[in-house]
Specification:
The chain is of the alpha/beta class. It is built from 5 helices and 7 strands. It has a single domain, classed as 3-Layer(aba) Sandwich (Rossmann fold), CATH 3.40.50.150. Helix 1 runs parallel beside helix 2.
Length: 175
């Protein structure tokens, strides 16, 4: 599990994003979940409590307690032929180069049977956080959440909601 040194990491807005992820994850009473980039593990811990009969697994780049360990760009080779009914990938994809975005989504989609939950930040001023490779509004082809929604629409029916001043969450129901 990650130990975040900044005592402000789990602030009110972050707890709000946990709530939004969980609300979307439990709406279908899925039997299996994968959380990619579980961060401080709040979402998988709570999901296991809310859905005690479901399989809840995690995927992380370096957390040794994760079910699967690897770079998200190598997702297929790490998880093999495993599939889940619901895959949550929040606050992850902005940390990889945008040129890998669609390829990663293709891989995640091929391992998802029913629902994908994705979150992405939007650029709110001229500076992005130093940890992000890109944000909505920071590159020419991705100016709005609608641009991301258009990309995601190839995977299923997409709804989008702006859940904080800078975070969008996308629900993709597989067709």
């Amino acid at each position: 599990m990650y130990i975040f040194g900044d005592k402000n990491y789990c602030n009110k807005k972050r707890w709000g994003t946990y709530y939004e992820q969980l609300k979307r994850a439990i709406d279908g009473e899925y039997k299996s979940y994968l959380i990619i980039g579980p961060g401080d593990n709040i979402v998988p811990i709570v999901l296991k409590q809310i859905c005690p009969n479901a399989v809840v697994e995690t995927y992380d780049i370096k957390d040794v307690t994760a079910t699967y360990i690897g770079d998200v760009c190598d997702f297929d080779s790490v998880v093999g032929d495993k599939t889940w009914e619901c895959v949550i990938c929040c606050q992850v994809l902005e940390h990889v180069e945008f040129s890998n975005f669609v390829h990663i989504l293709d891989m995640i989609s091929s391992h998802t049977n029913k629902k994908m939950i994705i979150s992405l930040p939007k650029k709110i001023n001229k500076f992005m956080t130093i940890y992000h490779k890109w944000e909505i509004g920071s590159i020419e082809d991705i100016k709005t959440s609608s641009d991301i929604k258009n990309i995601l629409s190839k995977y299923g029916d997409v709804t989008v909601e702006n859940i904080t001043d800078r975070i969008y969450i996308f629900d993709i129901i597989k067709e």
